[in-house]
Amino acid sequence: MNxxxxxVKPADIWRDADAAKDFLDQAAAELAAAKxxxxxxxxxxxxSHVLDVGCGTGNDVRALAAxxxxxxxxxxxxxxEQLIARGxxxxxxxxxxxxxxxxxxxxxxxxxxxxxxxxxxxxxHVPDPAAAVAEMLRVVRPGGQVLVxxxxxxxxxxxxxxxxxxxxxxxxxxxxVPNPWVARRLRDLFVRAGARDVAVTLQPVVxxxxxxxxxxxxxxxxxxxxxxxxxxxxxxxxxxxxxxxRRDAEGRFLMFGAFVxxxxxx
Length: 266
Fold this sequence. Notes:
Blueprint: H1 17-30, H2 32-41, E1 49-53, H3 59-68, E2 73-78, H4 81-84, E3 97-101, E4 114-120, H5 129-139, E5 140-151, E6 157-158, H6 163-174, H7 182-193, E7 196-207, H8 210-217, H9 222-228, H10 234-249, E8 255-265
Parallel strand pairs: 1-2, 1-4, 2-3, 4-5
Antiparallel strand pairs: 5-8, 6-8, 7-8
């Protein structure tokens, strides 16, 4: 593999802890308003026991610890030892915080351990989404809540002139995510896992800068990768990438999409 093709997969960032942390921090900043809506959907109260699946460096874990208070418990689980090693405890009036190394499809907890389980932008990356959802439902107590949200990578829509080329590159680029359409499958996965009162909420995401779009999709690297792998002719790929840069420089960049939020009870 040469240097040009080495940047093809957005998932490659998880191999470098510093790059992954920067990516997660920037994405969180772009989604701040959406995260407020997510927080409002969680049935978290003082004393709750909460699990965050795919916690990264633990920003959401610490926020949850403050919400549940010292009588509660918050656990963050991630498959990256480098990321959870950077996790920090909550504040003085927060719940005890614990960071655990593990996989979403094989959670290392007993049945019914938590009141609430959440997962944000994680199931799109796991090897077995059905197993991950089933495991989250298993470790929540009867009557407890599971919330999962992921972007639907088939719905990212950049405003660019060449519609046919945009469709071709965006479809190819989204397939580098292990489960690019998992968001639209989440309701089915919840129902099959036995969840009750399954509800679906759509969160629109509007991005008006390339930096914001890269935080979620790395679209800025798509043209070079498509050219390097021969997905489209080199000249056309270059023009497509240059249009993205030009629109961004002129303040005309626009891309929008959607996150799917699914909640269910045990």
